[in-house]
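Supplementary Methods S3. Input chains for the assembly prediction are listed below.
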Amino acid sequence: MNTRVWAAALILPFAALAAGPSMAADDPALLKDLTAVIALLGLPCGQVVSARRQGDNDHLAACKDGNRYRVFVNAEGRVVARKQ
Amino acid sequence: MHPVRTIGVLLLVLTASCAGIKAAPPVIVAPTVPPAVAPTADGPSDGTTVAAEPPRSEAKQETGVSMAPPAATRQPPVIGKEAATIEAPAAVPADVPADVPAAHSKIQSDAKAAPPAHTSAKPAAAPIGSEQPSKHEDLAAVAGKAEPPLDMAALKTRLRETRAIGVFTKLALQNQVDDLLKQFRAHYLSGQKTSVAALRQPFDMLILKVLALLQDSDPSLAKTISGSREAIWGILADPVKFNAAS
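Predicted structure tokens for the full assembly:
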């Protein structure tokens, strides 16, 4: 029993650490893509510095100027950027 | 003693792993998104902006502000050496009245005029006897070069397959292209006798956006699109060609 507790104590923190980075999508190509989309839609942003994937074709983008946008594809197949 | 040692090791490893994550540099590629990509239209009041809201050309005409021509003159989306050719007309005042076709044709004519000027200067140094044949050859070469055949299917394929534009951006651009085509279709279906000159501005804006997105990562495609601009407009502005293409 004692061994299991210690194993859990060892594994859980690492699992939490591994889960953290996977939530944040910091792929430079994605950041560039989101930057371009937000600019294309005429919204102030400057540059997307981080993004978090929320689902399929759904990202939460954080801009350099502090703005945050949810960028997703709506049911009609249009790219939408909604200010958060 | 053993548990204490284990906890110590665990904390050490956790600290090290946290430091590792923090140390990861946020590599951000400098955005190539142009200032020319100006706000297309007012977004909805709830702060949501949908890709490719149909540009309201009437509204833009009322204000008398032309966005495309100044963008074209201030920041030519032309790549590499071509920039020098089209940079020259940039001396045109930025606040020239918004006569899009006129301004655009001026740029085009300037761009086209450059090679003949070059060719006319070249034979000046040549002997008089050999002037005529070389002139003809140069003109023929320039004429053949200036009018490349427009291959829309290949252009579409290249745009779809280029890695210079991300998926979201491609989709947003597709939305905007569809909206522009809808505007042309509506214009032709309405049976208006007026020309489609009013749609030249949104067309130019869209081309500029595409060029701005491509010029750094896929300059050859950007150059091809830039060179095909008039041919594409020729198809859009002609109802017969437009219907055949769509």
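The longest helix of chain B spans residues 167-190. The beta strands of chain B are 48-50.
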